[in-house]
Every structure is written in structure tokens, then in C-alpha cells.
Amino acid sequence: MKKVNKKKSAPAQPTADRKKKEAAPAPAPEREEKKPAAILQAQAEEKAPEKESAALQLQETQAICETLPKTDGQKTEKGGKGMKILFAASEGLPFIASGGLGDVAGSLPKALRERRQDCRVVLPLYGDMKPELRQKLHYLCNFTVQLAWRNQYCGVFEATENGVTYYFIDNEYYFRRNGIYGFFDDGERFAFFSKAIVDMLRHIDFKPDILHCNDWQTALVPVYLNCYYRVDEFYRDIRTVFTIHNIQYQGQYGPDMIGDVLGLPQGFVEYEGCCNLMKGAIVQSDIVSTVSPTYAHEILDEWYAHGMDRLLRENCWKLRGILNGIDTVGYDPQTDKHIYKNYSAAEPEGKAVNKQNLQRDMGLCQSGDIMVVGLISRLVSHKGLDLVKYIFPRIIEEGMAVVVLGSGDYMYESFFQEMAATYPDKVAVRLGFIPDLARKIYAGADVLLMPSKSEPCGLAQMVACRYGTIPVVRKTGGLADSIIDLGDPDGCGYTFQSYNAHDMFGAIKRAQGLYYNKPAWNRAVQHAMQVDFSWNKSAGEYIRMYEELNERR
Length: 553
Prior knowledge:
This protein is α/β, with parallel strands linked by helices. It has helices at residues 37-43, 54-67, 100-113, 131-134, 172-175, 186-200, 220-229, 257-262, 266-269, 277-284, 293-298, 302-305, 309-314, 350-361, 385-397, 410-422, 435-444, 460-466, 477-482, 501-515, 518-530, 536-550, and strands at 84-88, 118-124, 138-147, 150-161, 164-170, 210-214, 239-244, 252-253, 270-271, 274-276, 287-290, 319-321, 372-376, 401-406, 427-431, 447-450, 470-474, 494-496. 37% of the residues lie in helices and 17% in strands. A 9-stranded mixed beta sheet has the order 3-4-5-2-1-6-7-11-12, with helices on both faces. It starts with 36 loop residues before the first helix and ends with a helix.
């Protein structure tokens, strides 16, 4: 693929199966004629004071946490006012996904539709989309998007899935590639995507009340909207939400990116000497949300915030935390076609069959007396794998077996492969992400281990409970909000507080102790399967948040 020549914009490349279109492209907006007061305000911003001392920061963070808005799903009204919401994301099931954002983009809009909200989704039209799904798309329109000095073709396609309308932004130069992320021009690709979303609203029969953007890939939507489009009456009353799924990934680039690629004034996305797309969204959005209440508090602290704590404390008045749910229809052991044998909380016998088959297929010793620990994770440090590495021999010495599925840092991949070679009947490792195998592990393991250093929400612990696999988690982020320790009558897993390998091992041992008490273990498994991790509560809280914004219109 050739790099774009600055003297000439990249050619428009219509999709191969697209019919010939006769409609002329709409003219790109002229930035020179649209300079609202927001630009002057951004240019006049004073630089932030020097970083406070650690003690002062801690006091300030604790005071702010007390003022953060509280959410209570029990008070949520089912229904709302029938608002129009456009959910903007870089991935979404069933069309394409690589992680938790794809799950949320595939299930939250559906849950909102079921509550009479007109929620639609906009995604890039990636080349990796499966042909059978691509065949469902139909062409809507095309126009030209101005991105700094570029004028780029943009096509819009549409499809309906599970009652939800999906829009797809088409530009083959940016999106017809193998893979979703990891390209040298990701900043330019998703800047185009963000600006195309705003331009698209003039060309489709849908004007949202709320634009809900997710992670750095769509962080520029509220920035472009406020910088260039608010002078147009059509855009004036659209409100914006920006959700942080993982604050570690902020869309950071060199400062030259701001003018040459993004076509923005310096103040909108400049942060601590670099271009930071997430900074722009935090400042320019009407509400900033995270995917769990605990994570919303944690990111005000420099330990979790990856340099964004000062900015977030300045904007804490608009910060919210709403715990994600899971698709309980897609994740249902009673109907899941990918597991060895279906079962349910009422008829749990099939789980033992899944364990036997998992042990057989992974080359482990087949015994019901051995507690199988599952680890489904990206193999990176913030997932707590240094704790696992430190204590791993003791886990094996205590008579447990471990199944690992994931990929990531070479250090952890090679460590688990070495453990599998050392203990071939106790440790099994599969590198990569294999969705069918992940479901077999959820159904066949006894325990799922999640010792994360930080975890914005986490979905695996909820899916594990759904399949009757007891999670062992560190109390952080969404893990703290979703898993109650089995020391409590309502408990569904085991938790530990400090980031310490011995504390983690203590939680695993508590699980093993209950495992050998079969009547008590079976009751714990049945209870975990009955915990409601659906979108019922969370969708209601999103609706309340949208209604709060709608009242500002």
C-alpha cells in the first residue's frame, strides 16, 4: 500500500460490488468560514499548573470521588422518552470485533431498542467483514469528507441486524485491509471515520439526539462537532457522550499530527506536548462515562489514569460510571452450540461432561477430583500475569490443572509454553484467541482466574458465572462491581484486594477448599449461573443518562 502523497489526496476507491452511482458528491465544509468562539477559547487556554504532590493529589481525588454522581439501577424506568441515539464505535458484533468494545456495540444498542429507544450504530466498513454479512449491506449515499488538506470519498451502507440499524462508513484506502488496528496511519484513518460520521448526518434520514462515542477511535466526533459544525443550526442541539473503555489507549501522536492530518487548532487535542485524541473528547463531550462505577473513581488517581488524572479531575463533574452487561442470549450454556453438551442451572449435569471433554481435548489428566483453572486473557502485564508467574509452581503442587488461552507479550507466552512442557498433564496452552475454545473453557473449567492490575469492566467474569465457572478476581474496576465474594450469602466468586501473589493464591485455595465440599460447591455453581448480568439494569442507567442530556437541549 502506498503512502499518501501530500500534494495529491488518496484516490477514492469504491467497493468492488458497489453499483455505479450518479449522485454528485456533496461539497466539503469550508473551515475558513466556520470559526466559532470555541476556537478562540481553546487558543486562550492557560497551561495547567505544575503537578501536585502525591499527598495533595490523594486528598483531592478522595474529595472528588465523594461528589461523583451515583447511579441506582433499581430506580430506572423501563422505556424512557424514545430518544434517537447514534452509537459510534470502531468495531461491533456480529459484523466485526476484536475485544470487549465489539461485545458492547453488539449488545447495548439491542437492549436500548428493546426499551423503545431508537438506537443505531455506525462502524467502518472493514475489508475483513465476512462475505455473508457483507451481502446484507445496501448502498445509501456518498459524499466527500474534508480532512485537513484532503478531500476523501466516503460511501455509506446500511444493514439491519437483531432489529438494530447499522451504518457503515466506506473508504477502501482506509479500511480495506487485513485487520482492524495496528497500521502506521491509524490516527488518520479514525480521524476520517470521526469526521465522516458528523458529515453523514446530513445525508441520511436520521438525526440523533445523542451521539455516543467510544474510545479514542471516535474521540474526534465531539471535537469536530464543536469546532466546525455548531454554527449550523442542524447540529446545534446534538448532545455527546464519550465512553472510556480503557484509558491506557488514548490515541497519542506527535504534535505535527494536529494541523497536517486532523486539521484542528492546537488547543483542542494538545496535551502535555503531544496530540492526544482522548483529551479532546474528555473536554468537548457533554458527558464522559466509563464501563464501571469503580473504574470511574480509579481513573482520578494517577496509578490508574496513565497521565490523564489531572484532566479528569478538572472534568469530574461530567464523569459517570455504568457497569457493562453481557448478551445473555448469546452466552447461554443451555443453547450454546460451541460447547460439548448443553446444560442449565436447573439441570447442571452437563457441566461435568464439558469438563471431561475439555481435559481430554487439551491433553490433561482426566479426573473429576482435579480442579481445573481457566485463564482466558491477553497475555500482558496489566492482566496480573506477573502474579500468576510468581506463584504458578505452587498452583500445580496443590493438585490443580491450568488451561491458558490468549496471546500477547513474548515473555508470558514463552513462560506458559515452558510450564506446559514441564507439566504436560497439568498445564495446557493455546496461543491466540479462539472463540469456540474460549466457550469450551467457560463451560469446562471449574474456576476462571482474573488477577488484573486494572480492569475497566471485564466481561469474562460475568460469562464465567453464566456457565457455572467460579471467578477468582482482584477487586478492581468492574471486577469489584460485579463479583461478590462467596464469604457473603449472595457471593458468586472469590476476591482478593491487594496486588499480591500470595493474596491471589489464598483466594484460589479458598476456591479449592469449597470445590472438595461437593454439596456446597454445587450450590455455589447454581447460584452463580442465576446471577443477572444482563443489560436490564445497565441499559436503564444509560437511558437515564441520555435523558439528563436531553433535558439540556
